[in-house]
Amino acid sequence: MGALPLSLTFPPDFLWGAAAAAYQVEGAAQEDGRTPSIWDTFSHTPGKTLGGDTGDVAVDHYHRFREDVRLMAQLGLGAYRFSVSWSRVQPTGRGPAVQRGLDFYRSLVDELLTAGIQPVLTLYHWDLPQELEDTGGWPARGTAERFAEYAGIVAEALGDRVDFWTTLNEPWCSAFLGYGSGVHAPGRTERLAPLRAAHHLNLAHGLGTQALRAALPARARIAISLNPSVVRPLTDSPQDLDAQRRIDALANRVFTGPLLRGAYPEDLLADTASLTDWSFVRDGDLAAIRQPLDALGINYYTPALVSAAAHDERPVRHDGHGASEHSPWPGSERVAFHRTPGERTEMGWTVDPTGLYELLMRYTREAPGVPLYITENGAAYDDKPEADGTVHDPLRIDYLRAHLTAAHRARADGADLRGYFLWSLMDNFEWAYGYSKRFGAVYVDYATLARTPKSSAHWYGRLARTGELV
Asked: Which residues of this UniProt protein bind substrate (predicted)?
């Protein structure tokens, strides 16, 4: 094999962006009619987040968005992927919108467009209105129906200015971490609820997509962002291969089966038969879920390594987002997760760009004709300012370079990959980890909320402007 070229080139129309989520950045938790989401309730519950941190202020993007957009423009970003706070727009999760809430997103979108930055809107990034959780949350069918109404409201307000829409971000986390392991809001630890939640999130995507298409111009693109897991067996024994199959069904095919093929996998139904007969899937649901996709978003951070658990072994409750004594894998609790080898980030996640390549090629095969976007990829490191105020993060640059090299290879091998969104634009509230983990390309001093682009931000900005990966 010859030497690798000094640089790799992405096409001029490749979309370079950065991503954020409403609860992680906005703050203003009680302003302009916003009511609590499940993450407000969860983070204010003692013991649920590290240090009792909450998103009440976060990084105050709600008040500082113009400064943040100027920063994006200075870095040369082509797109900003943000989410809408459902309870800021529809405080009870039903009924008419609060115009003050919508006005924030109107202003944000206008600011982005003026700066030449494409707005990429995610309708749901985990912050369900608390009132909807109180009536059952995602395990309840009505939540999917409410989501479709909410989607229509936001589409009516912003459809003339936003052309790229994402229904849900990482529904696996919402279903299995929120209702199974309990390490995410609303913190429920049940066995059947995650499966019901997964189905109703799928249904929400389908009904929401129908509502969006009814309200949006024909040019609009509609996607969903999944966090598919790269699941590898510890050995090639039949038992470990079966463990891999089980986790692949619960991590990946529980969503892509209905989304891409209009059916839940037969092996998933068999694995969970002791828990449910899946009678919560009603006639017409699968057809509603299987809506044509204009794009598929893929979020990737690290692979998983699994085996069958020995009879005297207590399986590791791995979910990638925190430890729990409760399993996020209903029907497959006897699968053991193992520490993957290699360099690790501050999250304890192995740096393995081959997993990103595998996912891009997998969904090139499984979703032929559907353009792919990497809608999240990044790493947390213990970034600290130098004496002169600069913040150098060479490990993050190495991480991004390696993963973008894998993405370039996938494009060369036939993946229709059209864009990449760095997670994340700024340091922010990292869910149950509070403010202890820094994923941002921009450093945030949490005492003053001052923003300082790290060396990775300048590196990524040059890439976004030139398309040259060096």
From this structure: 24, 125, 169, 301, 423, 430-431
Establish if 456 belongs to a structural domain: yes
Answer yes or no: is 24 a known binding residue.
yes
Cα–Cα distance for residue pair 15/331, rounded to 1 Å = 40
| Residue 184 assigned as binding residue | no
Q: What whole-number distance in Å separates Cα of residue 270 and Cα of residue 352?
A: 32
What Å distances lie between residue 376 and 103, 363, 403, 418, CA to CA?
27, 16, 11, 13
Total of domains in the chain: 1
Query: Could you give the CA distance from residue 195 to residue 332 in angstroms, rounded to a whole number?
Result: 12
Q: Which residues are catalytic, by number?
A: 170, 376
Q: Binding residue per annotation — 338?
A: no
Give the domain CATH number at 102.
3.20.20.80
pLDDT value for 310: 83
Q: CA torsion 300→467→61→424, rounded to 10°?
A: 20
Q: Which residues of the chain have pLDDT under 70?
A: 1-6, 312-324
Q: Is 430 annotated as a binding residue?
A: yes
H/E element holding 289? helix 285-289
| Residues 263-299: tens digit of each pLDDT | 999 999 999 999 999 999 999 999 999 999 999 999 9
Tell me the pLDDT tens digit for each residue of 423-450. 999 999 999 999 999 999 999 999 999 9
pLDDT of residue 325: 81
**Look-up: residue for tokens 């979309």?**
15
Peptide bond into 46 cis (omega under 30): no
Does a structural domain hold residue 4?
no
The predicted structure's pLDDT at residue 2 = 45
Residue 448's identity, in one-letter code, is T
Residue 245 in any domain: the answer is yes
DSSP result, 138-206: TTSHHHHHHHHHHHHHHHHHHTTT--EEEEEE-HHIIIIIIIII-SSTT----SSHHHHHHHHHHHHHH
| CB-based contact 97:32 (threshold 8 Å) | no
Contacts of 16 (CB under 8 A, 6+ apart): 76, 77, 78, 79, 419, 420, 460, 463, 464
Q: Where are the alpha helices (DSSP H) in 44-96?
A: 61-75, 86-89
DSSP state of 337: E
* Phi and psi based region of residue 453 (left: phi greater than 0; alpha: psi -120 to 50; beta: remaining): beta
* Structural domain includes residue 143: yes
Instruction: Give me the domain span that covers residue 192.
Output: 15-469
DSSP string, 96-107: S--HHHHHHHHH
**Which of 145, 127, 43, 139 lies closest to 91, judged by CA?**
127
> What's the CA gap between 385 and 253, in Å, rounded?
43
pTM above 0.90, yes or no: yes
